[in-house]
From TrEMBL:
Source domain of life: Eukaryota
Source species of the chain: Prunus avium (Cherry)
Name the record gives this protein: Plant intracellular Ras-group-related LRR protein 5-like
Positions with biased composition (Basic and acidic residues): 12-27
Spans annotated as Disordered: 1-27
InterPro entries linked: LRR_dom_sf (IPR032675)
């Protein structure tokens, strides 16, 4: 979930930056105003399309987390009602869970509340990626999406690994890195060469 939240913040920030750059572009003298305006809108639409594609996987993770949390809350409420817990009865809220989840999963900085607890299952899933503080962190030959890169960064930071090698491992559509890259304070060797990275996040 932390990786997904990092991806959403990164994509939102890059989207805003690119849209602002397009808006500030000056019209060439020999180009009609209407044509230039259409050209700007085309570029903005392309940015929005790319951002939405990058957000898709991460947004799904955040939404599923909200569903699981709602389901857990409902189970606890039902358990309290069955056991006759008067405190639970006073705070029962039978609001439509679908509406609640829809509001909570809106992609914005306010909705990206970082969870503090570690996820054992997440760490287990990336044991083959991040080994230990004294060995190389690497990935297999499969190209990585922005979401997977964020997950690797989160697990590298938690494991204390000192080397992260992602040379040529990123999908071509990954043009920037998650802002969580700034968490890699223990990493002494970081290789993102042979990828199409256009810029590093300001957290570096």
């Amino acid at each position: 979930v932390e990786a997904a939240q990092s991806v959403l913040k990164t994509v939102n920030g890059e989207e805003e930056k690119k849209l602002e750059e397009i808006s500030k572009q000056e019209k060439p003298e020999n180009v009609p105003e209407e044509l230039f305006s259409v050209f700007q809108e085309v570029k903005k639409t392309m940015v929005l399309f790319q951002s939405q594609d990058q957000r898709k996987e991460a947004a799904h993770v955040v939404e599923m987390e909200g569903l699981f949390q709602t389901f857990d809350d409902l189970i606890q409420t039902a358990s309290g009602l069955v056991s006759g817990d008067t405190q639970v009865q006073k705070h029962v809220n039978l609001e439509n869970p679908g509406e609640k989840i829809g509001r909570e999963t809106v992609i914005s900085d306010e909705s990206l509340t970082m969870k503090k607890e570690d996820k054992e299952s997440e760490r287990d899933g990336f044991k083959s990626v991040v080994r230990s503080a004294s060995t190389l962190s690497s990935v297999d030959s499969e190209k990585m999406s922005l979401m997977k890169v964020a997950a690797v960064i989160e697990n590298t930071a938690k494991s204390g690994a000192v080397v992260l090698d992602l040379k040529g491992k990123l999908e071509d559509r990954v043009e920037w890195l998650p802002i969580s890259l700034g968490k890699l304070s223990e990493v002494t060797e970081l290789d993102f060469s042979e990828n199409r990275i256009m810029a590093l996040p300001p957290t570096m």
